[in-house]
Specification:
This protein is an alpha/beta fold. The protein has helices at about 10-25, 35-45, 85-95, 110-115, 165-175, 185-205, 210-215, 220-240, 245-260, 265-275, 285-295, 300-315; strands at about 5, 25-30, 45-50, 55-60, 60-65, 75, 100-105, 125-130, 135-140, 140-145, 155, 180-185. The strands form 2 sheets. It has an 8-stranded mixed beta sheet with strand order 5-2-1-6-7-8-11-12. Strands 4-3-10-9 form a 4-stranded mixed beta sheet. Strand 11, helix 5 and strand 12 form a beta-alpha-beta unit. The longest helix is centred in the middle third of the chain and has 21 residues, at about 185-205. The chain is globular and about 50 Å long. The chain starts with a strand and ends in a 5-residue tail after the last helix. The structure holds NADPH dihydro-nicotinamide-adenine-dinucleotide phosphate (NDP) and ketopantoate. The site of NADPH dihydro-nicotinamide-adenine-dinucleotide phosphate (NDP) has 24 residues, from helix 1 and strand 9. Ketopantoate binds near residues 198 and 261.
């Protein structure tokens, strides 16, 4: 099968390059961020490192949507939540989407699948979550964090049915690409479990401008995580959403990830530190809205969402 990656950023490069290099599968990249596309075209590919080492050039095909005339079987979508609506509108206007195509996305937060469902058949959509840490150093330069074969991800059909033949093929391709896929049902519970994880790690690391190892080294880390998970799980239960890990497993997963990915600055920090808006409204903000909708205020998530926005706004007063 042929793959197209929409969004040649940190995670888009991670999936596309691994599919290309490990599984030998043809991949095309669509990128609307001009400096990134131009840099890749100028240097003849993307520079890829792993844990800051072995920086090497990987040749890739990259296009602006309007210049692309291919027809991949599967689109892999990795944009920031707030960029997605404009991206999909531009891609659709450029004639990129066709009724036979499948789509997969493992973006953080929630809100993207409703947007994707405006362009794709819900029976051909795969939801995903990725416990895969990646840093975009700048245009055309990406760093895969963590050891080879350390990648781990979940995927689930968006229609909550058993995966069809194409979905099984995508799963097999991801396996060959060493992305560490695990197929499950219950797409919403799967995604909300990752949202709750990111609502702890991404948000707290961003606010205190620390990496995951530094957060994990704080003796109160488990207690802080527990408070946020308790609210998220209470809100999920009231909304009738079954999480794929329980509260204790989620706290342990944070502590383990803070060891395994100790040098990683979560993607939210990468946005924050470069002066860009963060995805907090789709992460803690999503949990807070879910709680309110079900008559259960998640006061810590509400407060923390404000704190991140306050920190974003206060960046203007820094030297
Ligand atoms: N990175 C990670 O480890 C993980 C990320 N995710 C999720 O995947 C999705 C995609 O995220 P990710 O791949 O990290 O994001 P990207 O690397 O794609 O960054 C997104 C955008 O940010 C801008 N940008 C990025 N780097 C720079 C830079 N150096 N200078 C200026 N602008 C820059 C560009 O848009 P513009 O010019 O419009 O600002 C770019 O298109 C998100 O939902 C994220 O939460 C999920 C798991 C792990
Ligand atoms: C890698 C991981 C899991 C760390 O929270 C992530 O999702 C991110 O950086 O956004």
């Amino acid at each position: 099968m042929r793959y197209g990656v929409i969004g040649a950023g940190a995670m888009g490069y991670r999936y596309g390059v691994l599919l290309q290099e490990k599984a030998g599968i043809p991949v095309d990249f669509i990128e609307t961020w001009d400096p990134n596309r131009e840099q890749v075209q100028k240097q003849g590919g993307v520079y890829v490192s792993r844990d800051h080492e072995n920086r090497h050039l990987v040749p890739i095909n990259i296009y602006a949507p309007e210049d692309y005339h291919g027809h991949p079987d599967v689109w892999i979508v990795f944009k920031k939540q707030m960029q997605l609506a404009d991206e999909l509108e531009r891609d659709a206007a450029a004639g990129l989407f066709h009724p036979d195509q499948y789509v997969f996305s493992a973006m953080n937060g929630l809100g993207h699948f409703e947007k994707l469902a405006q362009y794709f058949n819900p029976d051909q959509m795969l939801a995903g979550t990725a416990m895969i840490a990646t840093v975009l150093n700048g245009p055309g330069d990406v760093d895969f964090m963590g050891p080879e074969n350390g990648e781990a991800m979940h995927m689930a059909p968006y229609n909550d049915q058993a995966p069809d033949e194409t979905m099984e093929e995508i799963y097999a391709d991801f396996q060959r690409a060493t992305l560490g896929p695990e197929m499950c049902g219950n797409w919403l519970g799967m995604c909300l479990t990752k949202v709750a994880f990111n609502a702890v790690c991404n948000t707290l690391c961003t606010m205190f401008e620390i990496n995951m190892g530094q957060f994990g080294s704080y003796p109160g880390a488990a207690e802080m995580a527990e408070q946020l998970f308790n609210e998220a799980h209470d809100a999920a239960a009231r909304a009738g959403i079954k999480m794929i890990e329980d509260r204790g497993q989620q706290v342990q997963s944070v502590l383990d990830s803070c060891v395994k990915l100790k040098y990683h600055y979560p993607s939210m920090y990468q946005d924050f530190s470069k002066g860009r808006p963060t995805e907090v409204d789709y992460i803690n903000g999503y949990i807070a809205r879910l709680g309110r909708k079900n008559d259960y205020p998640c006061r810590t998530h509400e407060f923390v969402t404000h704190e991140v926005h306050l920190a974003e706004q206060m960046r203007q007063y820094r030297n």
